[in-house]
Amino acid sequence: MLIQRIYESKKLYMNELIVINDHDRYHYLHNVIRIKKGDSIIVFNNSKFNFYCKVIAIMPYKIILQVNQIKENKNESNVYLHLAQIISLNKKKMNFIIQKSTEMGINEITPIIIKKTHIITSNVIKKWKKISISSCQQCCRSIIPIINPPIELNKWLNQNHETDQKIIFYPHTQNKLINVKRKVKKIIIMVGNENGFSNLSIKKFKEYGFHDISIGKRILRMETAVIAAISVIQVRYGDF
């Protein structure tokens, strides 16, 4: 039987009591999955461990759990994936990208600004982090992807990125992923927005060490391109 999972932000230890008294998690446990005293719950806290808990008390607006077992969660990929995503003004598409890339094993996301009119508020960042946590809850990951503050493209390109490989996906190239070196632990992948990349942009990215790679001749939607890009990386370097 599948054990339900919830997120807790603090550090956890054996036998520790966890008090669930915020509206969202209380509502989920009490009204959605209707847990009972004695039921088991897995708690994750952005570490590599799962904390197996028992429900020891259910009260109005408060549920108390107790940690009774700690196990390492081995669901992380063996390649560190950093997605540099050109921001779309379509909020639903960005939410979808955060959700699906988390499920597929992304470790870090940097939203890239290419126009000064692309203003991303702190509330949007909070929503993206909430979506990422929810996706981890669903797909049984325990480590939540890092979502960096949005940054202008030129500033980001000039930063010193610790990585083994930089890849930009571009349908109008003959280069294939099979031609890129096999043993890597950290990869940055750049994915464009609805407008794609021009030949001039690709030339610029190459100057910063990016390899232009094709995943087919067809022009993919932005959100499809993210899924396809992560998939081929995970097949070659990760755990697919």
Please provide a written account of the structure:
- The chain folds into 2 domains: about 5-70, Ribosomal Protein L25, Chain P (Beta Barrel); about 80-235, 3-Layer(aba) Sandwich (Alpha/beta knot).
- The strands form 2 sheets. Strands 6, 7, 8, 9, 10, 11 and 12 form a 7-stranded parallel beta sheet that branches. Strands 1-3-4-5-2 form a 5-stranded mixed beta sheet.
- About 30% of the residues lie in helices and about 25% in strands.
- It is of the alpha/beta class.
- It is built from 6 helices and 12 strands.
- It has helices at about 25-30, 90-105, 120-140, 155, 200-205, 220-235, and strands spanning about 5, 15-20, 40-45, 50-60, 60-70, 80-85, 110-115, 145, 150, 165-170, 185-190, 210-215.
Draw up the topology in text.
Blueprint: E1 5-7, E2 17-20, H1 23-32, E3 40-44, E4 49-59, E5 62-72, E6 80-86, H2 91-103, E7 108-113, H3 122-139, E8 146-147, E9 151-152, H4 153-157, E10 165-169, E11 186-191, H5 199-207, E12 211-213, H6 222-237
Parallel strand pairs: 1-3, 6-7, 6-11, 7-8, 7-9, 10-11, 10-12
Antiparallel strand pairs: 2-5, 3-4, 4-5
Helix pairs in contact: 2-3, 2-6
